[in-house]
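Page 47, continued from p. 46.
Same chain as before, 544 aa.
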Amino acid sequence: MLTTLAAVPVGAMASVQPDGALHAYARARLADGDGALTMAVANYREALRRDPARLEIARRSYVQALESGDRVLARQSAMLLDAAGMLPRDGTLLLIGEALSAKDWTGARTLTDRMAEELNFAFLAPILRSWIAIGEGQYTPPVIDAKDRFAALGQRYVDEHIAFQALAQRDLTTAMPAMRRALAIRSGDGAALRLAFAGPLAKQGAKAEALTLLPMGNASFARARADIEKGKLPKAIVAPMTPAQGFARLLSRLAIDISSDSGAATLGLRLSRMASFADPDSGEVHIVAARLLTGQGLPAGGAAEAAKVPLNGWFGPIAQAEMIDALAASGELDTALTLAQAQVAVPDAEPERHVRLGRLLAQKREFDGAAAAFRTAQASYAPDQMPWTLLLFEGSALEQGKRWDEARTVLERAAKMAPNEPMILNYLGYAQIERRQNVDAALALLKKASALKPQDASITDSLGWAQFVTGNVGEAVPVLERAAAAAPADSTINEHLGDALWMAGRRYEARYAWAAASVYAEGDVAARLEAKRKEGMKPEYAAP
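Result:
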C-alpha cells in the first residue's frame, strides 16, 4: 500500500531529513579534493557550526583552517579538539599564540610548560619563556642549556631573539654580537632579517651600524637606506617587538626550516599561518607564508599573502619577488614577466632579480633572453666569487636555444669551476651524448656524476643511456632499470629503458616500458612511443 506524504508523522519526517552537518562536511571534502580551498573552508565552517561535537569535522576544519589562514575557524576547531584530548601537537603552538596575543601571560606560561612536556617543540621553550617574561614586565634573556638534548635546535634560533630583546632594552652591547651570529646562521635568506635589525638600530642612534647591515648596490635595501639616512623611520619598523611578534618570528623561522624537508612541508605551512595570526601586520611573516604556499602548490594563496605587504615599504621588494613566483606558478607568466622586468629595471638590481627573470623567459621558451639575463646576473660577481649555478643556468638556456657551441663553452667553464658538482657533470655529459659528441669523455663525466650522487634517478638514467649509446647494452639495462625503479613516472627514463630492453632481446618488457613512458608523454614523444609499441624499435624511432 502506498502511504501519502500527509500521513507521515512530523517526527518521522525529521528522522529522514538530510543531516545538514554531514552534507556541509561532504561538500567540504569534495571541494578539498578539487583544490577549491575557499569553498572547502566555508563548508567546514558550516559543518562545525551545525555539529560542533563531531570531532572528525573539527579535525578536518583545523587542518584546512590553518592552510587557508582562517584564524577564527582554526581557534574554534583547536579548542574542540583540545577539550577531547585530540589536538595535534602543533595545536599547542596555536593556543600559545592566542594567549600571547591576548596578553594572557599566565595562560601562555601554562601552555609553554605543556609544550615542553609534549617534547615535539620543547626546544622553543627557553625563547618563549623569555618573551613571556618581557610581557610580565621583566627581562630574562633566553638561555639554552648546553646539556639539554635539544640544545642544538634551540641554539639555531636563540640569537635572533636575544638581539631583538636586547634592542628593546637599548642594550647594543648584547644586541650587536647576537645580530652577527643570527645573520651568519641565516646567510641564505637574511635580507629580511637585515631590514628588521636595521630599523631598531637606527632608532637608537646607531645609524652607521644600521647602514652597514644594508650594503649599497642592493635595490632591495634602497628604500630602507634612504629612510635611515633621512632619519625618517616607519613606526612599525622601529617599535619594540611584542611577545606575540617575537613568537610569530620564531614560528616563521621554524616554518622555513621544517619546509626544507618535503615530508614536513605541510607542518611548515601550518606554522607559517600560526605566525600570521600572532603578528598579522608583519611583512616578514607574510613573505614566508607566501613562499611556502606557492611551494606547496597553492600559488593563489601565495599571491594573496604577498599582496598584504605594502609595495612601497621596506619589505615590498622582497614580497614582490614572492608575488612573481606565485603568479608564475599560477600560469600567469605574462603578468609575472612584466613584474620581473620592472624589478630588474631599477638601479642596483641584485643578481637574484635577473635570475628570476631568466627563469621566466626560459619558461616562455625565450632562451636568448634567458641566457642574457643569466649573464647579467654573473656581472654582479667578481670572477672568483661567481656561483657556478649561474653558468649552469646560462649554459642550459643556450643549449635549449640551439646554440650548442656557446653552451658547451659555458658548461665547460662551470665544470672547471666546480669539478665535483654532479648536476654540471650530468648536464654536460648528457648533452654531448645526445649529440653523439665526445662520447668517451661524456661517458666519463657521467660515471663521475653517478659516483658522486648514486641515488639520483636522472643521473643514473644519463649513465645508462650513455652506456647504451656506446654499444654496451648489457651494462646499460640494469642501470636503466634502477633509474626507472627510482622514477617510475618519468617518460624519458622509461623510453630509454624500453629501447635498451628491445636491443637486449627482451621485447615484451620493452613494450611495457614504452607503455609506462606513454602515460605522461605528449606531442612528438607520445607519437614516437605509440609507433614503437605497435611496430617495434626502428632507427627512426630511437630516443634522442
